[in-house]
Amino acid sequence: MSSARTPACRLGTRAETVGELALRCGFELAGVAPVGPSPDYPYYTSWIGRGLAGAMRYLTGHRADARSDPRNLLRTARSVVCVAKLYNTPQPYSTEFTAEDCAWISRYAWGDDYHDVLRRGLEQLASLLGPDHDYRVCVDTAPLLERSWARAAGLGWIGKNTCLINQQIGSWLFLGELLTSLEIEIAPGAGPPPDRCGTCTRCIDACPTQALTPYELDATRCISYFTIELRGPIPDEFHSATGAHIFGCDICQDVCPWNRTAPVTADLAFAPRHFAPPLERLAALTEEQFRETFRGTPVTRARYAGFQRNVAIAMANAQSGSLA
Ligand code: B12
Ligand code: SF4
Ligand code: SF4
Predict the structure, then answer these.
(1) How far is CA 135 from CA 114, 130, 178, 231, 299, in A?
(2) How far apart are CA 110 and CA 122, in angstroms?
(3) What is the pTM for the complete model shown?
(4) Which of 63, 101, 231, 258 is most open to solvent, judged by the fewest CB atoms within 10 Å of its CB?
């Protein structure tokens, strides 16, 4: 396991750094960025403005404006503490897995819901930082540009697949943040690492729906968006490309060379509960059984109707031989 990137920072008279404290709270990476206007916010508004968010309304309107500055979430914030938690497990990648008539659930959704796991770790980190600060914990759902802040805090670069990638441990990472009123001193030279994608285009070439152009994702073409976020029918033209995916998609990370030797998490919270379940079994689940089977995992976000829609498409693909 790679050690946490440790920003040389001073917390009053404390000897420990935020990176060391974050390790104690179960995170692999931590870094700090000073609060200010959000890096990449103009890019974000351009992405929204071009319709690339599809129907994800929580990304637009006043929720979009809130992303312009973390002080919209915590008025007294002076530092953004960014953390990352590894969720990789030893199971094969979707691009290597060949069992017939099985469904593919994306790697991040095999175990416990990460929102709860990261929130607990961040609350613990907040208390280790002492009683005298205002803070706010953010994991995924807050209107904060998490990848951009993680890059600013030195956790990794943003790849052509749009994921945050760390040179040592790859991109199977959940991100979280602690906005705090503490002013944490950052070492000179800390900050974003270089982009290490180079001339590689594997993710762009492998995406079955051509959702990626370098560094940009069109959600209206993305299997992850279709199978998790979209309510209503998935456009017909994307059915066969969806293959066996019934919740999320990992292809553009599976093929990334930086994930070739990615370490695995020691946290049992992410141990797979449902790895490649048989499609027949999923198709037979009642709504109650669906809730019972996937309780406490991210899969419930698809809701029963979305889940059934996804399973039906994967079964049709299995019958027509386009599961690959
Ligand atoms: C909406 C959303 C999605 C959407 C859209 C994804 C996307 N690429 O935009 C969908 C449903 C498709 C999705 C899919 C996934 N998601 Co998601 N998602 C989010 C969410 C809630 C918001 C992301 C967002 O604002 N997108 C809009 C784009 C424009 O922003 P962005 O991707 O963050 O990119 C920023 C920077 O990269 C930079 N940037 C990007 N491109 C460019 C180009 C230029 C020219 C410039 C200047 C800047 C720039 O600016 C952007 C704005 O800050 C975040 C949580 C959060 N609050 O941030 C999680 C998050 C990004 N998702 C996450 C995960 C794990 C996934 C999946 C792997 C899940 C799965 N297996 O299906 C896939 C990965 C697909 C992929 N290749 O991105 C993790 C990412 C961890 C990581 N290592 O990067 C996050 C951070 C959640 C978390 N807390 O861990 N997701
Ligand atoms: S998650 Fe899948 S569909 Fe979406 S961009 Fe990556 S490879 Fe393409
Ligand atoms: S597959 Fe290649 S281009 Fe895509 S994110 Fe990984 S290194 Fe970058």
Answers:
(1) 20, 11, 7, 34, 30
(2) 22
(3) 0.96
(4) 231
CA of 321 to the centre of ligand 3 (A): 29
199-252 per-position pLDDT tens digit: 999 999 999 999 999 999 999 999 999 999 999 999 999 999 999 999 999 999
Residue 213, beta-bridge partner list: 216
How far is residue 228's CA from residue 303's CA, in Å, rounded to a whole number? Answer: 9
Strand-pair partners of 102? 278
Burial tier of 304 (Cβ tally within 10 Å: 0-12, 13-18, 19+): middle
Q: Which residue among 157, 161, 205 is best mutated to probe the pocket of ligand 3, counting the most ligand atoms within 8 A of its Cβ?
A: 161
Give the DSSP H or E segment for 42: helix 41-49
Phi, psi for residue 69 in degrees, rounded to 5: -160, 130
- Over residues 139-171, the pLDDT tens digits come to 999 999 999 999 999 999 999 999 999 999 999
Catalytic-residue membership of 140: yes
Handedness of CA 280, 282, 286, 288 (dihedral sign): positive
Kindly report the backbone phi and psi dihedral angles of residue 174, in degrees, each rounded to the nearest multiple of 5, phi listed first. -95, 145
Closest listed ligand to the CA of 107: 1
